[in-house]
Design a protein that fits this description.
3 helices; about 20% strand; alpha/beta; Nucleotidyltransferase, domain 5
Length: about 140
Amino acid sequence: MKIVSRAPARSSGDDSLVPLINIVFLMLIFFLLAGTIAPSPQVAVDPPAADSRDPLRQESLELAIDAQGNVFIAGEAVPLDLLASRLRVEFDAARGKAGTRIRLDLFADHRLEAARLDPVLAALREAEIEDVYLKTQVRP
C-alpha cells in the first residue's frame, strides 16, 4: 500500500474579498433605493434627443408644449393670448419663494412644428424671460 502525503490546501487571497464585495453591493442597493428621483413633467411630451447633458440645477418653472401646440404651465393648460401675463405672474411668485433668478424649463414635443413655437417664443420675449432651457432626451 502506497501512502501519499498531500500538501495542505492553500487558501487564496480572494477569500477575504467576498465579504467586501457583499458590503459594496448592499451599499449600492441602499443608495439606489434611498436616492431621490426628479419629478417628471406633468404633461406627457416626447422631447427631442441631445448629445450633451446639463447637470445644472436651480429653481425653475416648467412650460410644456404638446405636439398639437397646446401650452401648459406646471401641468395647467394656458391659452396663448394669456401666456405672457401668466408667465409674469408665475415668475414673480417663484422669485418671491426662491429669492433668486428663476429659469424656464421648456418641454416641447419633438413632433411640434416650428411655426407653432413662434407665438410661444413671442410670449416669452413679451414677458421678458431670459433664462430659457429647452429640455431634451439624452440619446441612448
